[in-house]
Amino acid sequence: MPMLQGQMMDAPLLISSLLRHAEQYHGDTEIVSRTVEGSIHRYGYADAARRARQLANALKRLGVQPGDRVATLAWNGYRHFELYYAVSGIGAVMHTVNPRLFAEQIAWIINDAEDTVLCFDLTFAPLVESIAAKCPSVKHWVALTDRAHMPAQPIPNLIAYEEWIAAETDRYDWPEFDERSACTLCYTSGTTGNPKGVLYSHRSMLLHTFSASLPDVFGASARDCILPVVPMFHVNAWAIPYIAPMVGAKLVFPGPSLDGASLYELFETEGVTFSAGVPTVWQGLLQYLQTHKLRLTTLRKCVIGGSACPPALMQTFERDYGVKIHHAWGMTELSPLGTFNTLKKKHLALSKEEQFAIEVKQGRPPFGVQLKIVDADGRELPRDGKAFGDLLVKGYWVIDRYYRATESPLRDGWFPTGDVGTLDPDGYLQITDRSKDVIKSGGEWISSIDLENVACAHPAVAQAAVIGVRHPKWDERPLLIIVKKPGQEVSREELLALYPGKVAKWWIPDDVVFVSELPMTATGKISKLRLREIFKDHKLPTA
Ligand code: ADP
Hints:
Elements: H1 16-25, E1 30-34, E2 40-44, H2 45-61, E3 69-73, H3 78-89, E4 93-96, H4 103-113, E5 117-120, H5 125-131, E6 140-143, E7 158-160, H6 161-166, E8 182-187, E9 197-201, H7 202-212, E10 225-228, H8 240-247, E11 250-253, H9 260-270, E12 274-277, H10 279-292, E13 301-304, H11 311-321, E14 324-330, E15 337-340, H12 352-359, E16 369-374, E17 389-395, E18 415-423, E19 429-434, E20 439-441, E21 444-446, H13 448-456, E22 461-471, E23 475-484, H14 492-496, E24 511-514, H15 528-534
Parallel strand pairs: 1-11, 3-4, 3-5, 4-8, 5-6, 6-7, 10-11, 10-12, 12-13, 13-14, 23-24
Antiparallel strand pairs: 1-2, 8-9, 14-15, 16-17, 17-18, 18-19, 20-21, 22-23
Helix pairs in contact: 1-2, 1-8, 2-3, 7-8, 9-10
Bound molecules: adenosine-5'-diphosphate.
Adenosine-5'-diphosphate binds next to strand 14, strand 18 and strand 19.
């Protein structure tokens, strides 16, 4: 139909514009990094932008073309940040590889992406040595260090990052191109089958960054100091490397040290106000704070997502440390933001308990994301906070197609997330489970997350996981797996006594086992898949 065209400037939404903005208006705002060597590096957005332009020239000289994939195996740090901008800025594709995967999986991913350059932190030199011969597409390997610290491993065509970019001028005009071009590539961890590539566009990433910065989402500002604990190889560190330059926030990169002591030191010395990561990281920090009787003097809010945040963890941070925890849900296919939990005005009149009952949910979608839940036949279910079904999503930063895939993953234009949950009339999502983690007992579903949350509220419990174990009569019954806090005791009977009155009687776990630690996935979540393997022959007392 013939339309009347608007008459406003038409400029593509490009990643490079974020760093240009930060350089011009927040040039002296700091980016602080703990390096792999352990020292602290600090500079401002203007320095980062200058070095990103040198890096852009260096990439061009190496022959990197628009659309080429440049991979990283790196922690959160300033050189990784420079790569985020230089690679996408020249029109190439930034491919963040998760170094916690097995070497064979890493090589598989690099080959699938056909990366031509791979930049790595010194930590990963042995890994790079072991995979180099298996990655024929990679023509250049770049060690993210200076000449004096080059790794001893024999790695072909090895470049020293500092020397490489020092040879270039910092004059470079970021090119303008179609905003639908790819900027970044990130693989799902592929708990079943091979990992799948998700290819973000400049447009989707910029819209995601705008929305994630809104007050009811990350709500970051030029008065914030943000420390992303979530790695830059885990869905773009939840967009923090883009949000911070957009709003002019100080950035603190923790490098490889994500233990309680190292994080606490950075939080306090740098005045961190805001942080984000998966629940296991905060459980570790909490134990450190409790053991050493420490206080957090500047941190005021944290985003917890990636897996369900136990309500007890949220409560302890808020009550004992004055840190507000915001629960969020997302996934690689969503860039990752799907929902974020903040209250509405009408909720302010509610009691603390009523507010908390909302805040433990995974939150509501920001502008740009639409959610619905459907039954097994694809019929939409009511948004009453009770009916639960398969969660479908669509929006400006939701996947349309996996990298190299010929078939669309969509159902009638909606992306099936593989999660099961409820939606309430106000739009708040509550995840019941991943569909493969749901416990199917006698034809009905039991939520493993609900059962874990009850156990986590016990003061002697450090971590809890619930899985379904085969049962001759009921198909599956829940098994509660517990890691106790150091020096604390709790019995099987005490734990099982927590459940009556909190969940339906038939949901109560059939058995409890105590372990010294839980297996983790490459993104720092409890690996239910591995737990199901370990306990596949567990004999339930009820069997
Ligand atoms: P990986 O499986 O590699 O960690 P993702 O980060 O993409 O990859 O994981 C996304 C999945 O994590 C979601 O589909 C969901 O099952 C789970 N998840 C993310 N956030 C939450 C949350 N707040 N509560 C429960 N589950 C979550």
